[in-house]
Amino acid sequence: MSEIKKIKNLKEFSTSADRFEGANLLCPGCAHSIIVREVLNATNDDLILSAATGCLEVCTAVYPYTSWDASWIHIGFENGSTAVAGAEAMHKALKRKGRLKQDRDPKFVSFAGDGASYDIGFQWISGCFERGHNMMHVVLDNEVYANTGGQRSSSTPIGSSATTSPAGRISYGEKKNKKDMLAIMAAHGSPYVAQVAPNKWKNMIKAIQHGFEAEGPVFINAMSACTTEWKFAPEDTIAISDLATDSLVFPLYEIIDGQKLNITYRPKNVVPVEEYLAAQGRFKHLFKDQYKYLIKEWQERVDQKWDYLQRREEASV
Amino acid sequence: MENNGWSEFEIGAMLRSFEGPATNIATTHTEDRNYSASNSFTASVADWRIEKPVFNKDYCIDCQFCWIYCPDMSIISRDKKMIGVDMDHCKGCGICVEVCPTNPKSLLMFQEQHDDEVALAEWPEKETKEK
Fold first, then answer.
1. Could you state, in order of their start, the residue ranges of all structural domains in chain A?
2. Do B69 and A70 touch (CB under 8 A)?
């Protein structure tokens, strides 16, 4: 077993050498690369990576360039997770037969957007988790198909205006609630499932390192604020992420062995959900008189979820 | 790297990030790496910028908030010290300026054509908090 990288504070962390390169074509202010950096820098071990089709893939592997300084593969929209699972199975087999040239255990990580995880790649991820590969699946959850122009995915929250669920005179936008992916993946019996956000970097590093240490398939749902589709200024990425975690719209918690739930971040001052909604263009129609009742519903839904998480943590089930 | 037409594209392509063998990349900083021409590090997105960040080291406390939150690996930190901005890869998003906690800020956005020396000379004074 390789050593865990020691990261006590941000200064110590800043001595890391990035294995993800600039001049990729992600939008200015995109949270995807902040998440990728935090994941890759959490370890010094070799990495076997994949990315499912999505913003991250199309922007970091534009022929003739690659932005990845580690083994990285892209195949299709749905099978980013299985590509890594295959590599992991091969590594395990070669190791058992003693045919590995080097005795270095790499970390296996697949990146995918919410579209490639919640919808299109769901069956493949479920398969990987059922077979129990020793890998990590990181979802860059921007709650929309941002790469193809902002179509709704099953991660899009209620009231959000997406191009296939536009808000207008008749409709308030997306009508279905976000899929509770963490509960689904925890139900697979995964040893570690966590929800993280890039603005809480320490929390995130802890979760990622815990995930790397765990034996078996690990699921990480990382909130990725999207400046283009959530419609806010590029410099506000971190401020919006702070609003999301502090208003508990995106609570940070982990589920260990599919059983024990821990809340990993408790905001000192809880911000009203209204502030989070008001900061983004995709929710601006909710502030018309016609749709104002939805803000109250949002707050109730968030409170209910937070209450549920707290009760589960307390009962440790 | 030469640009090929559509007909010359391979169905599956493999690109090497480095020239020759590359070991322990995780502990090798950019200046010691042997990048290949197909690594995007050799490319530049400097022409994306309308505004650029200017770094004033007099006020910097090396908190490294800019380093962790930079989406483009453009904040150069060595030995726990922030030493500058990588202008080839900075897209001018302005996150570094937003997260900078010092007073006055040690990173500020200026127009791309603005001279760095002039920018440093006209750096704002410390703001006093209104009571």
1. 10-315
2. no
Closest in B65, B71, B99 to A33, CB measured: B71
User: Is the CB of A63 less than 8 angstroms away from the CB of B71?
Assistant: no
Question: Is the peptide bond between A251 and the residue preceding it cis, with omega within 30 degrees of 0?
Answer: no
Rounded to an integer, what distance in angstroms lies between the CA atom of residue A254 and that of residue A142? 19
pLDDT tens, position by position, B29-82: 999 999 999 999 999 999 999 999 999 999 999 999 999 999 999 999 999 999
CA atoms within 13 A on the CB side of A316: 0
Q: What does chain A come to in residues?
A: 317
Distances (CA, A) of A30 to A6, A78, A248, A281, B2: 27, 23, 21, 16, 29
Pairs across A and B, CB distance < 8 A: 149
Residues in chain A within 8 Å Cβ distance of B30:
17-18
CB atoms within 10 A of CB B61: 11
CB atoms within 10 A of CB B128: 7
**Percent of chain A whose pLDDT exceeds 90:** 92
- Residue in chain A lying closest to B30 (CA): A17
Domains of chain B: 1-43 (no CATH), 45-123 (3.30.70.20)
Say what the ipTM of the complex is: 0.91
Contact (CB<8Å) A19/B71: no
Residues of B in contact with A16 (CB under 8 A): 26
**Interface contact A22-B89, CB threshold 8 A:** yes
- Report, at the CATH architecture level, how domain A10-315 is classified: 3-Layer(aba) Sandwich (3.40)
Q: Which tens digits make up the pLDDT trace of A213-267?
A: 999 999 999 999 999 999 999 999 999 999 999 999 999 999 999 989 999 999 9
Q: Which chain A residues are closer than 8 Å to B90 by Cβ?
A: 22
Q: Provide, as residue numbers in chain A, all residues whose Cβ is less than 8 Å from the Cβ of B28.
A: 17
